[in-house]
Amino acid sequence: MRSLEEFGLINLLEDWCSFCEGVAVFDKSHFLGLLKEHSSNDELNVIFSHFPFSDILASRAAQVIASGTIEGSFYLLPASFASRDELVRLGGEWLSAQALICGEIDDVEISEICAGASVRFVSVDDLDSALRQDIPQHWIFDEVGDALRASRMSDSDQMYALLEALYGLAADYYLAWYIAGPLFKIDVDLEPYFRFWSAGGRCALTRKELMVSSRAASLN
Fold first, then answer.
1. What is the average pLDDT value for the chain, to the nearest integer?
2. How far from 119 is each of 65, 87, 197, 203, CA to CA, in Å?
3. Which of 29, 95, 182, 193 has an alpha carbon 20 to 30 Å from 89's alpha carbon atom?
């Protein structure tokens, strides 16, 4: 592997390499901006070289980064926005994936909710109002998060820091878990969520439906 000097990489990436090599100690929050500051293919290869499945991890991170933009925002946002019909279609794919994920983690109740839910496009206000309620959207997030955290291949400080850095890219745990997928022992398919996100989709799962809206409206 070429040296960091050949890549011209400094500061946060140098800290990351020192941390992963065990020659420096940092709080995991130190690396929240790692992938926003160092997002070239060469830099991503260096970041993930300290973990198994580094090629897959770097490829997924590059895919997510290429689908978004940080211009005018502190976090990565989708770079394009699909039509209502396309968001409903992609939302349906994500809903089906959630039913399978709940089956994988043995959450029968939410799996049945997902299987019986319809998909409907709604206004941003209606979506935000639903998200303030105690709805299955929040239950499934907690269940999936707990299951994935319990199935990490490693409990090292470096693993914790990597997940924090992945979250810091877009402030989105589902995207972070999608990129880090090979590092979990359970197999959950989060690619449908990535496709939905990259099309500008937002959603709220209630007991009866998956409410879908566009991030484009919330940015105007």
1. 93
2. 28, 10, 16, 10
3. 182
